[in-house]
């Protein structure tokens, strides 16, 4: 593992047992993340993004189970830690933010109480200093009149404000890794843009690594350094943001790019990828994207493609990547 890698996920497999059989929600997922870098984890609903995030946090409850892989955080495999050690890491070094800020916020406590208690739980500082830190972090998250917000209860804040506070709480103890599971999806586009740029500034400033989970490629376009595209539990393409967005190799990634809202059509979705993601209980023998792919061949129907390197850290799970001729 290279010295600047904060996180290295190798061969992660997380399954859910259901009455109908075992669902491979995450299958053979591998990626690395350097210190201070932002990874955008992208894919349609049900592709395994959240389960990947929760697996890293080791927050998979039965009927789910991590069945294979390594999650190296600063070289230590999180899957081998005792639950107590993991709890310590979760409280101090790794944080998660959710689509619903109320997963983080306590509805019956004022914002200042929640923030001060968070600081005091993680450092030996005074209450006055903790309050100062809380106010400064709210300010850095673009919250005007932070003093007033500190005195509010969560229900007195707007949705965007609640999410800013929840993110500020995650940043308070300066974790080394934040996993953000669609925290801006429910917000309107303007607020989403503001929050993205504040989070980007703060993580750069603090040197925090960030995994940003989203179904929306346009969100990660301006935010991430690296992108991993998931489909049916697997990474189908990964690489630097410019490589993946400017030179997509997987037909699915190209489909996602083509379905982004066009600015001159007032946000109407164009060229949606036809068809639906496959049932994880009945995956085809070959490529999981086979049914929906315009470049499919008999090989794709019969064999599962591996994630092949294409130089510069760009990799694709496809027999006939974009740019190469499809055999007749
Ligand atoms: N508790 C569960 N029981 C059974 N299957 C589950 C459970 N949780 C997740 N799964 C399976 O894992 C798959 C991936 O779920 P996941 O939440 O990671 O998708 P996602 O890409 O984050 O989608 P979304 O954007 O909708 O959250 C689901 O399609 C489902 O089949």
From TrEMBL:
GO terms for molecular function: ATP binding; ATP hydrolysis activity. Keywords: ATP-binding, Cell membrane, Membrane, Nucleotide-binding, Transport. InterPro entries: AAA+_ATPase (IPR003593), ABC_Ni/Peptide_Import (IPR050388), ABC_transporter-like_ATP-bd (IPR003439), ABC_transporter-like_CS (IPR017871), Oligopep_ABC_C (IPR013563), P-loop_NTPase (IPR027417). It comes from the Bacteria. CDD domains: ABC_NikE_OppD_transporters. GO terms for biological process: peptide transport; transmembrane transport. It is a peripheral membrane protein. Residues 9-257 form the ABC transporter domain. One of its GO terms (cellular component) is plasma membrane. It is found in: Cell inner membrane. Belongs to the ABC transporter superfamily. This is Methionine ABC transporter ATP-binding protein.
């Amino acid at each position: 593992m290279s010295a600047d890698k904060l996180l290295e996920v190798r061969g992660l497999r997380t399954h859910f047992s259901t009455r109908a059989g075992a669902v491979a929600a995450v299958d053979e997922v591998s990626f690395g993340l350097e210190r201070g870098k932002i990874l955008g984890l992208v894919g349609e609903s049900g592709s395994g993004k959240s389960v990947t995030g929760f697996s890293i946090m080791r927050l998979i409850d039965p009927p789910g189970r991590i069945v294979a892989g390594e999650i190296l955080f600063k070289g230590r495999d999180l899957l081998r830690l005792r639950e107590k050690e993991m709890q310590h890491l979760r409280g101090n070094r790794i944080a998660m933010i959710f689509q619903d800020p109320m997963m983080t916020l306590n509805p019956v406590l004022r914002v200042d109480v929640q923030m001060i208690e968070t600081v005091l739980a993680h450092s030996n500082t005074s209450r006055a200093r903790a309050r100062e830190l809380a106010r400064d972090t709210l300010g850095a998250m673009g919250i005007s009149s932070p003093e007033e917000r500190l005195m509010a209860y969560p229900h007195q804040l707007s949705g965007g404000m609640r999410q800013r506070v929840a993110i500020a709480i995650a940043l308070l103890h300066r974790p080394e890794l934040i996993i953000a599971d669609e925290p801006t999806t429910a917000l309107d586009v303007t607020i989403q843009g503001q929050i993205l740029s504040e989070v980007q500034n703060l993580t750069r400033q603090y040197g925090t690594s960030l995994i940003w989970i989203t179904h929306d490629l346009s969100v990660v376009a301006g935010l991430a350094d690296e992108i991993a595209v998931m489909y049916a539990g697997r990474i189908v393409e990964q690489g630097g943001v410019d490589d993946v967005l400017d030179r997509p190799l997987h037909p699915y990634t190209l489909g996602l790019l083509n379905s982004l809202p066009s600015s001159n059509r007032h946000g109407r979705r164009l060229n949606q990828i036809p068809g639906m993601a496959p049932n994880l209980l009945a995956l085809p023998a070959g490529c999981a994207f086979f049914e929906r792919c315009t470049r499919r061949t008999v090989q794709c129907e019969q064999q599962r493609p591996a994630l092949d390197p294409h130089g510069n850290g760009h990799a694709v799970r496809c027999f006939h990547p974009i740019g190469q001729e499809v055999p007749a």
